[in-house]
Write a structure and sequence with these properties.
The protein has helices at about 20-25, 45-50, 65-75, 95-100, 120-140, 155-160, 170-180, 200-220, 225-255, 260-295; strands at about 5-10, 30-35, 55-60, 80, 105-115, 150-155, 185-190. By secondary structure, it is of the alpha/beta class. The chain has 2 domains: about 5-220, Spore Coat Polysaccharide Biosynthesis Protein SpsA, Chain A (Alpha-Beta Complex); about 225-295. Helix 5 runs parallel beside helix 8.
Length: about 300
């Protein structure tokens, strides 16, 4: 008997895209759960018109993450799949997600980099930057840490769940899984033009994602790795000071009084990056060995 799948769709004012998503996913999953997050349009009525949908409602808008948690709380499937209500993620990739989980993946991500034509330029740039940072922090190849299309076993949610309220949830969840040594698999997917108005605010949400990455990098890193990385912050501060002094002298006097400051700045920053990288690598190897031991003991 195959694994039962539960699809979670958080929806906030998505009356146009939601019916398209429900109809497309209906024959791909065993259970569809829609959480209306305090919508002011006909989102609830649209979802209620489908007999195969389990519908839950927040009386006030609590955010996407709260809607996802409500959905998982009521999910009965072995595998949980997240998708958005804006019709951007095709349902045809569900079997690929299930297959990867059956082969041992802990978290499956739909990487939108296969086709980014429908992604706004600013979003595309932010996606590349934050995915690079996520990959650096986790020491893994991650091309799309922000994707809203992802799948995992139901019992993994508590381990992957993070303290977040908005769109930074996906980034923190991805990095946390990597930092704990869980197996992450990415599958390339098509990304369609959204139906309805986007709720992403690039500057505000970009700041939250950056803060989320720093938070996970610190909180999910082992004490040994932190001890190795600690001197790097001193080198960064001193390097920035000498660099700023060099810039000030060049702009004020037209030349450098301390000619060696630019070289010193470069040297200190490079040393700091090396220490951070070594600490992250050691942390990754430690967590990976812990996961291998955990699997062997099962």
């Amino acid at each position: 008997m195959g694994l039962k799948t539960s699809l979670i769709i958080p929806a906030y004012n998505e009356e146009k895209g939601l019916p398209l998503v429900i109809e497309e996913y209906s024959d791909k999953v065993d259970e569809i759960i829609v959480v209306d997050d305090g919508s002011s349009d006909r989102t609830f009525e649209v979802a209620a018109s489908y007999a195969n949908v389990k519908l839950y409602k927040h009386e006030t808008n609590q955010g996407k993450v709260a809607a996802l948690r409500t959905g998982v709380e009521h999910a009965t499937g072995d595998i949980v799949i997240f998708t958005d209500a804006d019709y951007t993620y095709p349902a045809k990739y569900v079997p690929d997600c299930i297959a990867e989980i059956e082969k041992g993946a802990d978290l499956v991500l739909g990487s939108r980099l296969r086709d980014v034509r429908n992604m706004p330029l600013l979003n595309k740039l932010g996606n590349h930057i934050f995915s690079f940072l996520a990959a650096y922090i986790s020491c893994m190849t991650i091309t799309d840490s922000q994707t809203g299309f992802r799948a995992f076993r139901r019992e993994m949610f508590d381990k992957l769940n993070v303290n977040a309220k908005s769109l930074e949830f996906e980034t923190k969840m991805t990095v946390r899984a990597a930092k704990h040594g869980y197996k992450i698999v990415e599958i390339p997917i098509e990304y369609r033009e959204r139906v309805g108005k986007s709720k992403l605010r690039p500057i505000r949400d970009g700041y939250k994602m950056f803060a989320a990455l720093l938070s996970v990098a610190f909180s999910e890193t082992s004490l040994l790795a932190k001890m190795i990385m600690l001197p790097s912050f001193f080198f960064i501060v001193v390097g920035l000071i000498t660099g700023l002094i060099a810039v000030y002298e060049q702009l004020t006097f037209g030349g450098l009084t301390h000619e060696y400051y630019p070289i010193l700045t470069t040297f200190l920053i490079l040393i700091a990056i090396q220490l951070i990288s070594i600490g992250l690598i050691i942390d990754y190897l430690t967590k990976k060995l812990d996961r291998i031991e955990e699997r062997l003991l099962k």
